[in-house]
Amino acid sequence: MTVINGYEQSDREQKLDILNLPSLEEQAKAIIPTGGFGYIVGGAEDNWTLRQNTKAFAHAQIVPKALSNIENPDLSTSIFGIPLKTPVMMAPAAAQGLAHSQGEKDTAKGVAAVGGLMSQSTYSSTSIADTQAAAPDAPQFFQLYMSKDWTFNESLLDEAKKAGAKAIILTVDATVDGYREADIINNFQFPIPMANLTKFSEGDGKGKGIGEIYASAAQKISEADVRRIAEYTDLPVIVKGIESPEDALRAIGAGAAGIYVSNHGGRELNGGPAAFDVLPAIAKAVNHQVPIIFDSGVRRGSHVFKALAAGADLVAFARPVIYGLALGGALGVQSVFEEIDHELAITMQLAGTQTIADVKHAPLTHFNYED
Amino acid sequence: MTVINGYEQSDREQKLDILNLPSLEEQAKAIIPTGGFGYIVGGAEDNWTLRQNTKAFAHAQIVPKALSNIENPDLSTSIFGIPLKTPVMMAPAAAQGLAHSQGEKDTAKGVAAVGGLMSQSTYSSTSIADTQAAAPDAPQFFQLYMSKDWTFNESLLDEAKKAGAKAIILTVDATVDGYREADIINNFQFPIPMANLTKFSEGDGKGKGIGEIYASAAQKISEADVRRIAEYTDLPVIVKGIESPEDALRAIGAGAAGIYVSNHGGRELNGGPAAFDVLPAIAKAVNHQVPIIFDSGVRRGSHVFKALAAGADLVAFARPVIYGLALGGALGVQSVFEEIDHELAITMQLAGTQTIADVKHAPLTHFNYED
Amino acid sequence: MTVINGYEQSDREQKLDILNLPSLEEQAKAIIPTGGFGYIVGGAEDNWTLRQNTKAFAHAQIVPKALSNIENPDLSTSIFGIPLKTPVMMAPAAAQGLAHSQGEKDTAKGVAAVGGLMSQSTYSSTSIADTQAAAPDAPQFFQLYMSKDWTFNESLLDEAKKAGAKAIILTVDATVDGYREADIINNFQFPIPMANLTKFSEGDGKGKGIGEIYASAAQKISEADVRRIAEYTDLPVIVKGIESPEDALRAIGAGAAGIYVSNHGGRELNGGPAAFDVLPAIAKAVNHQVPIIFDSGVRRGSHVFKALAAGADLVAFARPVIYGLALGGALGVQSVFEEIDHELAITMQLAGTQTIADVKHAPLTHFNYED
Amino acid sequence: MTVINGYEQSDREQKLDILNLPSLEEQAKAIIPTGGFGYIVGGAEDNWTLRQNTKAFAHAQIVPKALSNIENPDLSTSIFGIPLKTPVMMAPAAAQGLAHSQGEKDTAKGVAAVGGLMSQSTYSSTSIADTQAAAPDAPQFFQLYMSKDWTFNESLLDEAKKAGAKAIILTVDATVDGYREADIINNFQFPIPMANLTKFSEGDGKGKGIGEIYASAAQKISEADVRRIAEYTDLPVIVKGIESPEDALRAIGAGAAGIYVSNHGGRELNGGPAAFDVLPAIAKAVNHQVPIIFDSGVRRGSHVFKALAAGADLVAFARPVIYGLALGGALGVQSVFEEIDHELAITMQLAGTQTIADVKHAPLTHFNYED
């Protein structure tokens, strides 16, 4: 165990024997300090949207294709020409040092081990360069929480580009911190610095609440920002936090190279619909102009299948990965991805789908199940 | 603590550290005597409507507008030309002396502190004049439980007008007391006088059950009464307890200057729909002819947002405020409003809405969630 | 207490202080012997239909009429020209000696005390004449479980007519006993004779299971039987156990003078819909040709209101009455009816309905609430 | 008790006093070793589809026909000209030696005792010939898990035909083993040989997990396989595991003589709809071209009725039968079928249906009940 500012970080490095991803939460809770765990697990307000996110997968059902003559389903896919061995990617998630002393470096290693896609958060515990260096040949995206200070934004984007980031994920659904009761109960202050924030004039994030950190971030984000970042970086810009067809089209009109359907895992706006419920209409509107990434509530191979069939091109998640990180470091992260890939492969075979393209064309039906 | 007729009233005066409004109920229960608490918390019959009131906010969901380029949402609004710093107002609620020795006086102070709108109940523990004097410069409405005795009604209306009431709220959904089981279980009799009732021939309400008090009130209320009160006072009359488009239009036809959509917090008719569920059709029928106030079940910033987006101009609540009153007097009331305003401000920012007018135009979607 | 064949019958005669009808079940369970209680409370198979019966009242909601200018609602109504002080009647229910030593005699007295309508079951513990004599001036209907032996049927009908029965209720939904698990668990045999069965060649029912008793009853019941009974008695025949519009029309075509919508309180066919859910379509088809009686699941004044508004002319129930009988004899029965009438009167006032005719014309709305 | 490889098999032979089939699960759990019980009871992933299977019977409701003039309902029916005394058949289920030392032999005897239809699984504990010999005059179907090795398939089909199998059930929904968490938790390996697998080159199944056994089975199954098996055996081929109208028609086009609607009791694909929910559309598409067998979730007589009314010709189940086998051997199996037949007969009488043909034409209604 590593102790930093009194906060006990896991140092574990081991493969995990995983029954299923939901069961990791309890295990991780036992080893992540209360404040850190509350920050990771918590949603906004009364967690209504957070709960619906996972329950909503019951609203669509897989219609298997019998006699489909397939075997050994192939999970490989790609985005922006980048080949991936799995459609399940790591969502950008802040402050992974709360879970493990190696933070995002170990996450990147674990994701690389399964041939997946890593994305880094602006609020990472480890720096852009260090995280990329942990898995130098694996693809990474960089997620930007836009600062009010454009000099700082450009500095981050420069660093991301230099490190080899393949795309920028611009988060637009977190212009203020959600009302997270777990953090209030725990009076949570980040005990660990955020590496990228050392360039902020106001410090490195350590000893601050998430609200104070967001305070440095821009509240006002507009279509012009999408364009500006795309032009500045000449990288694909993915707009994260889209929940309506209209906004998806506006983002694309502003130059977005990808749409990221998400409600931030129920951590920001509470009272909006489950992300899975809004996905089909957005996918219909986007109509394959740009790829769609989806997250919020994914815990099962069948959830991944349903999200792909409902219009997603890649499916992301974070909390279970962070629990795997706490429990096993890079190997734990790898185990988490292997588990969900294993569940997905079984689902694909049983649904009669050979490839991810087949899954994307698979029909869903909509009987009325509450959960 | 103040003891009156053996009833122990809170004397607390302090700001509250509030996690969320629902959590206040348990705290208030610990300090409000059983009979008083039962009166405040209770609904009618098996509380079916009471429960649906809050659950029904799940029936509509907020569709955030991304890339909206806004910051620092502005909660200010107005009604009848009266500027307000928040769209959340104090619903008329009886007998607040059950919660605190200062009763409605402290409520008025707390509401004034946040720039909100106070409404007084006919069955207040403190008199119209005293309650207004507690916050002399702040706007107040006076709610009338119409007596069978018009002399008495006119006397109350005179006093309200003299005290500066900006409007009259005529309650029409409580022509008999609801079947409140908590009061029956507790054999509840009001231990504290109702100041306005000292003018009733039959006494001041002390030592009576709510049923006996209602017995002095008029059961028969008609459109003619709306007209009569409007003409007598020359004040805007808001008809409270409207649950259908037809009745809203009838009330407006009778001279109502405002419609108050409410089922009395589930305390009167049980078996009617959740107030939130009937709001959209009423708002469509009213079509901005007069402002709409809404209450029943509101506990969260996201609820306030949804009610405004569904057609309300102001959103009221009472039980959480009374709990705050018991726990902290005027400062406690202020804390309650600050909490829900804080949650609302976050919701507005995350939904991409700058002003209350924006919220009123914000789209809601309707996926099928039970609760 | 009276002990008969080792079975302990209540002898209580007292008014009850009733909070609500559902709360009586637990109280009655404490004084009715296990086998008898199981027989009374039990439904068929896994009790699915029994549970839906009460939950289904959530599927329609009362729309109150504001500003309706009414007071002191009037619960009086009539059927077949018989004046009644309440639209709530006693459903035919077997073997009330299981609950009280005076059995149906006390039930009849209690019902008469509130000016209501009594109905006797073929399987009553007390005889037709004795039950009628207990409340000689009060109206009663006689319910017939048709025997395979027409001589016996005619004998019962003769006795009912002689005693002054105003109508015959022919039960058609119980041509075999439902699969009642409580009776199986308790290996329940009737400890008390059924007075009317002393005329059956095979005995009086004592020491038999309900299945054996039903075995003497006719399984085959047809439209011809309705006609035959109507002609034989020259009394109105009400067909009980109708769950579809088609069957209601067929019964009327066969001479039925009334339709009784019921699923036998969930005690016979399991897996059919809640009785309340099928009522509106039946009422629409019947279109006031004959009166409609409704039972199954009614426990609250608001349930009675909803059933009337959905198309019923009278609303019946039995289990809560039998619990009241056990707890207080005739006075207990009276208390049960007074309680539900009280709740109904409040509901009527708050809904803005002056008379039962008004209730029958009151609108219901249908938001989607599960329970 | 028989102990084989340390696994304790029941030897009980007795009639059972059954309250209802769901109650058998707990009783069986007490006598079947943990690993075996987990294998029998378990579903896939988070058991979502497994749970919906039984809950879904709430989605349709029986509309009884009153005054139908019927008695003594007749449960007899037939398939492919084979007369059966009950429409409830034994679903093919693997490894019944886990429940009882006599395995499928006792199941066959018990099924024969009620005049029902037995189906054998490829993965039976007893051989095709032995199981048939246990009830030599009773009809049996043979279920094929197609091997990658056609020589082996042909050998099994030869043996089945020689033993007198009346039809072949080709399972197509289990081309890989579902993600069964109970087996993972128990690290379950089959302690008992699978008699038919002694012909597999890789052994007899003993000491293997279900995954390893499936590994020998074909993943690729196509319409050509249906044709090939039909031509090879000249027996009717029933395709098991159909969940959509399209697949039903494709199977018929490939020569299927029957359609078996099933999701394998929730043991294979998780996230698909309840089998009962997809049945009506499939039945409509099949339009009586071939008979339809249905399983997944059936536990009650009312479930059998609903499945028949929704389009099934025969209704199968397995888990409750296996519990009966463990608790009472052949007599226990017989008791299970007698219980569900008894419940079905009551349901038929109360619904006004004389024959299975009547049930198939009985209307269902669709009020919205969650469960």
UniProtKB/TrEMBL annotation, chains A, B, C, D:
Cofactor(s) for this UniProt protein: FMN
Active site: H264 (proton acceptor)
UniProt keyword list: Flavoprotein, FMN, Oxidoreductase
Record-level Gene Ontology MF annotations: FMN binding; oxidoreductase activity
Matching InterPro entries: Aldolase_TIM, Alpha-hydoxy_acid_DH_FMN, FMN-dep_DH, FMN_HAD
Family matches, as SUPFAM superfamilies: FMN-linked oxidoreductases
CDD domains assigned to the protein according to its UniProt record, in alphabetical order: LOX_like_FMN
Domain (FMN hydroxy acid dehydrogenase): residue spans on this chain: 13-369
Enzymatic reactions: (S)-lactate + O2 = pyruvate + H2O2
UniProt binding sites for glyoxylate: Y39, Y145, R180, H264, R267
This protein's record includes keyword Ion transport: no
Residues that hold FMN according to the record: P92, A93, A94, S121, Q143, T171, K240, S262, D295, S296, G297, V298, R299
Subunit structure: Homotetramer.
Similarity comment: family membership: Belongs to the FMN-dependent alpha-hydroxy acid dehydrogenase family.
Protein name: L-lactate oxidase
